[in-house]
Amino acid sequence: MERATGLALLSVVVAATVLGLKFLAYALTGSVALYSDALESIINVAAALAALIALHVASRPADANHPYGHTKAEYFSAVAEGVLVVLAALAIVREAAPGLLHARAVEAPLLGLLVNIGASAINAAWAGVLLRQGRALRSPALLADGRHILTDVMTSVGVVVGVVLAQATGLAWLDPALALLVAGNILWSGWGLMRESVGGLMDAGVDAATDARIRQTMSEHAEGALEMHDLRTRHAGRMTFVEFHLVVPGEMTVQEAHAICDRLEEALRSEMPGASVTIHVEPQDKAKHHGVLVL
Predict the structure, then answer these.
(1) Last residue of a domain, one of 201, 231, 263
(2) Segment 155-163 mean pLDDT
(3) pLDDT tens digits along 173-228
(4) Mind listing the pLDDT tens digit for each residue in 66-97?
(5) Whole domain around residue 136: which residue ranges?
(6) Which of 20, 51, 172, 272 could serve as a FRET partner for 247 with CA atoms 20 to 30 Å apart?
(7) Which residues sit opposite 241 in a β-bridge?
């Protein structure tokens, strides 16, 4: 967790640096599209701060009021980031819409574009770091921040292309028009972030591939049992909770059944580090003859 928090802190520094560079690019050019790109970078700073706070809360151990821990705090930062993204898109629309009627040519575009490209290169490199580390640490907050920054990079590429076209063709309206397209892309990104994070807050189950891995692992390491049914899963930040019923022969001792449970828990945690596994043992007459059969 300390590693994730350190990355979030560094993300704040990177976001603030990129913000300064993008506003410098806007000041040099007067481009509405570059202004819209700079506005999105404000959201990057806010999102990085939200991720830092969420990771700090998520690192707290379980207590009497939160017996399952605080890992879901990461989802709140991702939802907050989605809301901020939507607000940024609305601010861009407000700035760009009048420009369609009163478009003006950008000034000294080359230097401003070079500054913006440099800022985007920093963003692209940092997005790669966050996505790799977010997957390795199974951190929703870092992944959300990385995906948002990657969207910002793609937006910046589109902005640069649009400003170059506006300058080359003399069609000044291309600049605010592109800013509106940027706003649409940002709205889509914000919706995606909120939808995924709300799924985590609503205890959505694991994806189909992970579910298949869980069932295969259960089937391969339950020797001595008869079947497993009523499998339920959910994510809470980097934690994965797995619950199921284990059917064993009626004459099996508690010690033997417990040994099977220990073996299953160890195998599942090896497959998914940090998983919390709950097993309800049942006698043979409770078998449902469906679910996961023992290989």
Answers:
(1) 201
(2) 76
(3) 777 777 777 778 777 777 776 776 676 677 778 888 889 999 999 999 999 999 99
(4) 887 777 777 777 777 777 777 767 776 776 67
(5) 2-201
(6) 272
(7) 234, 276
Residues 189 and 222 in one domain: no
Please name the residues in contact with 252: beta carbons below 8 A apart, sequence gap of 6 or more.
224
3-state secondary structure (DSSP) of residue 289: coil
Residues 234 and 92 in one domain: no
Listed residues 201, 219, 239: the one ending a domain:
201
**Strand residue runs (E) in the chain:** 227-236, 239-247, 276-282, 292-293
Using CA atoms, how far apart are residues 248 and 34, in angstroms rounded to an integer?
A: 65
Helix (H) or strand (E) run with residue 212 in it: helix 208-220
Number of domains in the chain: 2
SS3 of residue 291 by DSSP: coil
120 and 62 co-located in one domain: yes
User: 139 is written with which tokens?
Assistant: 């951190």
Take residue 291 and report the two structure tokens written for it: 């679910």
Q: Is 223 helix (H, G, I), strand (E, B) or coil?
A: strand
Backbone angles phi, psi at 227, to 5 degrees: -160, 170
Cβ atoms of 106 and 30 within 8 Å: the answer is yes
In a shared domain, residues 164 and 249: no
Say whether both 65 and 143 belong to one domain: yes
